[in-house]
Every structure is written in structure tokens, then in C-alpha cells.
Specification:
2 copies of one chain form a homodimer.
Chain A: H1 3-9, H2 12-22, E1 26-27, H3 28-37, H4 45-57, E2 61-68, E3 71-79, H5 81-105
Antiparallel strand pairs in A: 1-3, 2-3
Helix pairs in contact in A: 2-5, 3-4
The structure holds a DNA duplex.
DNA sequence: ACCGGTACATAGTAACGCTGAATAGTGGAT
DNA sequence: ATCCACTATTCAGCGTTACTATGTACCGGT
């Protein structure tokens, strides 16, 4: 992936994943697949798993182990109240930034 | 500043500064002031100067020392052709990301 | 027995913005 | 004369994040 996008994803990738989880519970492998569908083709699996560990440790998600028919057991993540709060804060920060940049792009 | 915004600025702050320089040449101290005017109230001076060093080393700006009436000489930065190219790439990456996130915010 | 798809995990690295401080010149207030 | 505020730049050390590369493990089809 471009270095530019790599840097730009810092901080936003977490928000993106929280937003995906707001649509419904999901497990890591599934999230990487959804990211690919969303156009983030080159996000490494390892990146997603590391991110999920972080948001779990910060208590933004509830975790459940669910057996899979075709592989090791899945770790299903569900956004909880604190996670929804974090997602709201993310949208707020993002909104500010997007607003500023839209303003700048207009040529002032 | 919020940790969230700190992380989100990674990658975008450079684009913001390039966009400011696209409006006309400026020196470091002036850029931090413009950022404040634009609403980025809490961006550290040291951050801006470090960023300017980076974009100078990457050849995105031309630099000129200009004496100041009220202090040490100013380093005036002017966006050059490579800088405008980098700015275009930034807007392209930003556009992609903003588009994806707008899509996500709609609830899918 | 092997290979590909599913599923999770981690050690090491690079990049970036922040904190805090140092340096240095000018002008006005006390 | 001295102190303070404003102008202007620079640097060392830190924390966070995403990437690379690799390893583990389970399953079904050939």
C-alpha cells in the first residue's frame, strides 16, 4: 500500500473497524474480508488482529469464542456501550477534520 | 490535544501544510498561526518545524532565508512542482478515504 | 500425504506527532 | 538597566500505530 495511505490510516482504521462492528458482531478474519470489500484491499491481517487486541484491552468490545466448521475457533467481537461511545467520539473527530479539509480544498 | 486527533493527523497534517503552502509562500511560525486560524488550535510548534524539515528534505518546497524586523531570520517555504504533485496525490488519497468513510457513516 | 482455504497471533521495524527544553533576536513596560 | 512578551527555529526522547514476515493450527478435497 502507498506510504501515504498507511500514515493516513493511523487513527482512522480503528474507527473504521468500530463502524464495521456497529453493523453487527464479527470475527477477525471476517473483518479483514469486509475491509477488502470496502476497498481497503491491502490491509494486512496482522494489522487487524493487533488492532482487535487493542480495542479488546480497552474494553470497547465483548468477546466470545465460537467454533467454526472450517478451521480454528473464531473470536467474535461485539461492540458494547463503551465501544459505541468511542465510535461517537471518532465520528466527532473525523467530522472536524473532514470539515477543515473540505474547507481547505475549496482553495481557502 | 486528544490522542484520537493526534493519531488522525498522522499523514494528513503534511497534506494540510502543503495545501496552506499552495495558497502562497510562508514561514514556519506563520504556518502554525494559520493552522490555529483554521481551527487546529493545539498543534505543537515543534511538530510543524519537524514536518517542514521533512518536506524540505524530500524536495517538495524551495527555501529562502529572509530577514525579519522583529526577530531571527525567517525560513520562507515555497511549494514547487514536486510539492504540487505531492499535494495532488494527497488529495487523491484523502478523497478515497473520505469517500469510504462517508459510505460507512451512512450505515453501510 | 499434501495443499489450499480458514483463523488467529506475534516479534521487529518505520513513520509521525507530541512533550519539553534550549537558543536567539526585537521591542515595550517597570 | 532589567524583565517580559513576542518572534523564530531546532532538537532529543517518547508513545502510538500500521506494515512485514513468520508461525501455529484446523479442516476438506484430491
Amino acid at each position: 500500500m502507498g506510504k501515504q495511505m498507511t500514515e493516513m490510516l493511523k487513527g482512522t482504521l480503528e474507527g473504521i473497524v468500530l463502524a464495521l462492528l456497529a453493523l453487527g458482531p464479527a470475527y477477525g478474519y471476517e473483518i479483514t474480508a469486509r475491509l477488502r470489500d470496502q476497498g481497503f484491499a491491502d490491509i494486512a491481517e496482522g494489522t487487524v488482529y493487533a488492532l482487535l487486541v487493542r480495542i479488546e484491552q480497552r474494553g470497547l468490545v465483548d468477546v466470545e469464542k465460537v467454533p467454526s466448521e472450517k478451521g480454528p475457533p473464531r473470536k467474535v467481537f461485539t461492540l458494547n456501550a463503551r465501544g459505541r461511545e468511542a465510535l461517537d467520539e471518532f465520528w466527532s473527530s473525523w467530522g472536524f477534520l473532514a470539515d477543515r479539509l473540505a474547507h481547505l480544498k475549496e482553495g481557502q
